[in-house]
């Protein structure tokens, strides 16, 4: 009997992720499958819910709205800052990305949206925020998580 995907299982999937325009934004093609602990919020909720009850060899296609994926675009995360917050960087161009360390130790990724003299408009939204995403998924492995994996809350 094959194991059905549920909480406390380690699941391996291959997937292809496309946005509203059909552009491939992420894929496991040419890489190892993605391995995650089901029920641990390791992957986006819309995808995790769709995988519930599936088994090895199953394929599925699921379109996930922004609120079940990387969230809606938050206008407040688009901010105009002074060029001086990028010390030592001479040529700041639209499309460049930077990492900013937050006080709580998390890392925020910002992308340059506009450059006007000393005013730089940065966007700290997740690159996939605001997008409906379509996953084509194949389940390649399902196994029981070890005690250690459950305790850690992630797959090893
Ligand atoms: Zn661990």
Summarize, please:
With 156 residues, this protein is mostly beta strands.
Can you tell me about this structure?
There is one protein chain. With 156 residues, the protein is mainly beta. The chain has 2 domains: 9-70 and 128-152, Chitinase A, domain 3; 75-123, Thrombin, subunit H (Beta Barrel). Helix content is 8%, strand content 39%. The chain has helices spanning 45-51, 147-152, and strands at 9-18, 24-27, 34-37, 59-64, 78-82, 97-101, 107-116, 119-123, 133-144. Strands 1, 2, 3, 4 and 9 form a 5-stranded antiparallel β-sheet that branches. Strands 5-8-7-6 form a 4-stranded antiparallel β-sheet, with no helix packed on it. A hairpin with a 2-residue loop joins strand 7 (107-116) and strand 8. The longest helix has 7 residues, at 45-51. The two termini are 24 Å apart. The mean pLDDT is 93. The site of zinc ion has 3 residues, from loops.
């Amino acid at each position: 009997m094959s194991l059905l995907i549920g909480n406390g299982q380690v699941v391996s999937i291959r997937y292809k992720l496309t946005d509203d325009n059909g552009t491939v934004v992420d894929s496991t093609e040419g890489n190892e499958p993605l391995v995650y602990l089901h029920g641990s919020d390791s992957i986006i909720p819309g995808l995790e819910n769709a995988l519930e009850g599936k088994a090895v060899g199953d394929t599925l296609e699921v379109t996930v709205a922004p609120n079940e994926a990387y969230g809606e675009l938050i206008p407040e995360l688009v901010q105009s800052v002074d060029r001086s917050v990028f010390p030592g960087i001479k040529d700041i161009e639209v499309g460049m990305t930077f990492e900013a360390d937050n006080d709580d130790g998390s890392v925020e990724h910002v992308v340059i949206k506009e450059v006007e003299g000393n005013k730089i408009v940065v966007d700290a939204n997740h690159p996939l925020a605001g997008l409906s995403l379509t996953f084509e998924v194949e389940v390649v492995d399902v196994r029981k998580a070890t005690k250690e994996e459950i305790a850690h809350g992630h797959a090893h």
